[in-house]
Design a protein that fits this description.
By secondary structure, the chain is mainly alpha-helical. The chain has a domain of 107 residues. It is 58% helix and 5% strand. It has four helices and three strands; from the N terminus they run E-E-H-H-E-H-H. It has a three-stranded antiparallel sheet. Strand 1 and strand 2 form a beta hairpin. It is globular.
Length: 159
């Protein structure tokens, strides 16, 4: 049985038990997503197609209403995502997190997972077993790890 990397402590905060390698991985992913978010300055729709899951259409059948909605919320949504990335970056080496910081981690890890899953075209049928011959194998392993980490956070919050 795998150990849970995040768990609630008796004090109510959260212990983060991830390796230095896992921390480096998270730290390396944050600037990649930040750069994609900063380049996405079109509230009418994500410039980078891999961001479409972060900014889904509110009115998929009405382009005019959807563009209007996006123009109102896009910048705020992007700023919130960037703030969560800032929080992860600032606390990536922490061994304990308060609930607010853990929630920021959850948002950032979920966003990273959504973007990576979109880039890999992950579906329900996608095998997350790393195949050394598959050029997407390492990225699929990261995707699987992010899902495992996210699940641990959700479990820790519900303890």
């Amino acid at each position: 049985m795998l150990r849970r990397p995040i768990r609630r402590t008796r004090k109510g905060d959260f212990e983060v038990r991830i390796s230095a390698e896992e921390r480096r991985l998270l730290a390396s992913l944050v600037p990649q997503l930040r750069a994609a978010l900063e380049a996405d300055d079109d509230p009418g729709g994500a410039t980078d197609p891999s961001l479409r899951r972060l900014f889904p259409a509110a009115y998929p059948d009405d382009e005019v209403r959807d563009r209007e909605y996006r123009s109102m919320v896009h910048d705020d949504l992007r700023a919130r995502r960037q703030a969560a990335l800032d929080t992860v970056e600032a606390s990536v080496d922490a061994t304990r997190l308060d609930e607010e910081t853990l929630l920021a981690w959850m948002g950032a890890v979920n966003d990273l997972r959504l973007v990576l899953g979109t880039r890999l075209d992950v579906s329900e049928e996608t095998e997350l077993v790393a195949d050394p011959a598959d050029p997407d194998g390492p990225a699929l392993a990261v995707y699987g790890y992010l899902g495992f980490l996210l699940e641990s956070m959700v479990s820790a919050l519900s303890e």
